[in-house]
Design brief:
2 domains; alpha+beta; SH3 type barrels; 5-stranded antiparallel beta sheet; two-stranded antiparallel sheet
């Protein structure tokens, strides 16, 4: 029994593929949530939406799980907003960069 649960746990850990980030600028190391390595924004980052060609900022919103280089936006309860539309990185501005 113990071996079976141990194997399941190891499979779960391997499946998540978390990536430890050690920044070169002296900031604290972090762990990317599964599937988000290489993305500028992570789930639950707070951002403004500024559509291409517009000066108006909408939000703030929260980042959902990124997919194929784009980001969905959520409200404070994790519900998708903007009909689940996916946005490009350059359309998003970090709400509080510090």
């Amino acid at each position: 029994m113990a071996g079976a649960s141990s194997t399941a746990w190891k499979a779960d850990v391997a499946e998540r593929e978390e990536k430890i980030i050690i920044p070169e600028d002296g900031k604290r190391p972090s762990v990317d949530p599964p599937g988000t390595a290489g993305y500028k924004y992570k789930p639950w980052d707070e951002v403004y939406l500024q559509r291409t060609g517009s000066t108006k900022r909408e939000g703030p919103y929260y980042i959902g799980m990124p997919d194929k280089g784009k980001y969905p936006l959520c409200d404070e309860n994790g519900n998708l907003v903007k009909n689940g539309e996916m946005f490009e990185e350059q359309e998003l501005i970090l709400y509080n960069p510090f």
